[in-house]
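User: Quick one: structure for sequence A, then sequence B.

Assistant: Sequence A:
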Amino acid sequence: MAPTAVIRDDTRGNGTVSFQGVTVTGAADLTHEPRVTSTATTAPTELQYKDLVICEGQTTTPTSTVTVQYSGLLYLTGKAFDSTWSHGRPAQLPLTQVIPGFTQGIAGAGRVRPMKIGGRRIIIIPASLGYGTQPQTSIPANSPLVFVVDLTNVHTQLTPNWPSTPQRLARPLCGRDTARP
């Protein structure tokens, strides 16, 4: 059975969605980088998320290694600080080695459902689940963050000494081919 996608009801015909001061244009187009802006004026106190594309693929866990495309911005200024799209390829990341808000926003925690392969999600991360008081190169201390994340793959570890093996769904993924070279 081919995977299916659900595009959120609030994705307008032009593919624009707004959530908590964040606007994503191209929200349902997983083949191109979305245009993300933030006009938020109040820092969040808890992780917030909105699914833009929901798929029926494999879910993540907090110990998964994932392959993602993402755009990252400072929530209160809208300034971009990183994008795998600008690097020309997705990133493969162990969720045990990223900021807690990124792990929780992808793998789920509390009221946050885990993402499934082929999905796209807005994740708004309070500073306490980001870098907190530790400034990074392009991220000031105490900065809330926003990511728009496409989950393209989930990897599982077969044995402690074997390389990670990708778990993919048959293509096209949710009706779109999101694979990148």
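Sequence B:
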Amino acid sequence: MILLKHDCRITFISSNYFIYLIRPVRGKAGGKLNDNLAATLFNGIGAIVPLVIYVAIKSKSSTETTTAGIVYSLLAGLSIAVFSIILVNLFARAENVSFILPAIYGGTIVLGALAGLFVFKESLSGVGMAGLIFITMGVGILVYSRLSA
């Protein structure tokens, strides 16, 4: 189980790093490219880069690849693909970026932390819990302001 936690964390961290790295570029494709093609390119590159890194370091790693690790990685990849397709389509509809980005990324952080707590049985400090509460309140305030506008 420890190996599975480690693999999922690496997958999550590397995919989030990649998403934050290309965020400024991704927004510039809106209106210049079919939404589904943009999502396909985005996800394709997001799959190729970690695969190249994996192949490059595989011989140096003592971590055994297991069926469970592959299944969970595929599920994580599917989740990221669905997430990015939804995000690209929201940007294509010219939704308010100042609402979408905090709501999506804040919600992702909260859901990821909750998965860590309940699925992987990780612990969270009081300060960490306060941070999650503040993020949830911030997203709630954004949603409320949008609904009342």
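The CA atoms of residues 124 and 130 lie 10 Å apart. Residues 1-94 form one domain.

User: Thanks, that's what I needed.
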